[in-house]
Amino acid sequence: MSVAGINVLVEETRALAAGKAPAKTLLAVRGVSTYYGSVAALRDVDLDVTEGEIVTLIGANGAGKSTLMMTIFGAPQAREGTITYDGRDITRLPTHEIARLAIAQSPEGRRVFPRMSVHENLQMGAALHDRRYFAQDLERVCALFPRLKERLTQRAGTMSGGEQQMLAIARALMSRPRLLLLDEPSLGLAPLVVKGIFDAVRDLNRRDGMTIFLVEQNAYHALKLAHRGYVLVNGRITMSGTGRALLADPAIKAAYLEGGHGAPVEV
């Protein structure tokens, strides 16, 4: 049995022992390998995200973190292995069909529509959902990120990096996802802005029960936030465990938390 499978089995056993129904696996990645031409970017990756939790994937630049995120969302597609979401095999589905399954992604680099206003960007996020809920959802994301309410008529490309990151997450939320994929939300942002972004992610999970898969280079903030985490090294999962356990692991500290690599910053 894979490491991911063992971790899920342990959690299910604990839940049963406590008299609770075991959490449902919402996303399961099994033996996934992804290639760019003949070069393997991911090798035999196993990973699980259960409903209602935050799971983080940490690793150095070039480890394959964003490739895994993109593979889950269908571009590129896995050459080997399977990806299931809510019990359905989505390995070979195109991206637009995956987006219709209540999965949303806030991509690395934000990728907002720079010439469109904030309001228009949010309309794009809601394009696959019932328009009757737009006003309600708009109010919800503006409550989560009050700065956006002040910028609704402003062109997205004229906003700061932190504001664009808020918009990218809010745009993903407008599709009412069950699973939110966040790719490097802290990248290039000031510490105070990073804290605000991670506070918002925590609120989404605790208040709304949203399931979140977070890819992050900032290991300290990611592991502090996450229920569970995985470590990706050169395209392979090398470690997994609770966020707290990984945060305390000497090998993780040496590789990712010392010498400025995602070390905690007081704000």
Report on this model:
The chain is an alpha/beta fold and 267 residues long. The protein has two domains: 3-102 and 179-257, 3-Layer(aba) Sandwich (Rossmann fold); 110-177, no CATH class. The protein has helices spanning 3-17, 65-72, 95-99, 118-125, 134-144, 146-150, 161-173, 191-208, 219-225, 243-248, 250-257, and strands spanning 25-36, 39-50, 54-58, 80-85, 88-89, 103-106, 179-183, 211-216, 228-233, 236-242. The strands form two sheets. The chain has a six-stranded mixed sheet with strand order 6-7-8-3-9-10, sandwiched between helices. The chain has a four-stranded antiparallel sheet with strand order 2-1-4-5, sandwiched between helices.
Set out the fold topology.
Blueprint: H1 3-17, E1 25-36, E2 39-50, E3 54-58, H2 65-72, E4 80-85, E5 88-89, H3 95-99, E6 103-106, H4 118-125, H5 134-144, H6 146-150, H7 161-173, E7 179-183, H8 191-208, E8 211-216, H9 219-225, E9 228-233, E10 236-242, H10 243-248, H11 250-257
Parallel strand pairs: 3-8, 3-9, 6-7, 7-8
Antiparallel strand pairs: 1-2, 1-4, 4-5, 9-10
Task: Offer a quick outline of the entry.
The protein is 39% helix and 24% strand.
Please list the strands of the largest sheet in the order they lie side by side: 6-7-8-3-9-10
Q: Which class of the largest domain in CATH terms?
A: Alpha Beta
Q: Give me the secondary-structure category.
A: alpha/beta
What is the CATH homologous superfamily assignment of the largest domain?
Answer: P-loop containing nucleotide triphosphate hydrolases
CA-based gyration radius: 18 Å
The total domain count is 2
CATH topology of the largest domain: Rossmann fold
| Count of runs of 4 or more consecutive helical residues | 11
Share of helical residues: 25-40%
Order of helices and strands: HEEEHEEHEHHHHEHEHEEHH
Find the count of extended strands (DSSP E, 2+ residues): 10
Shape: globular
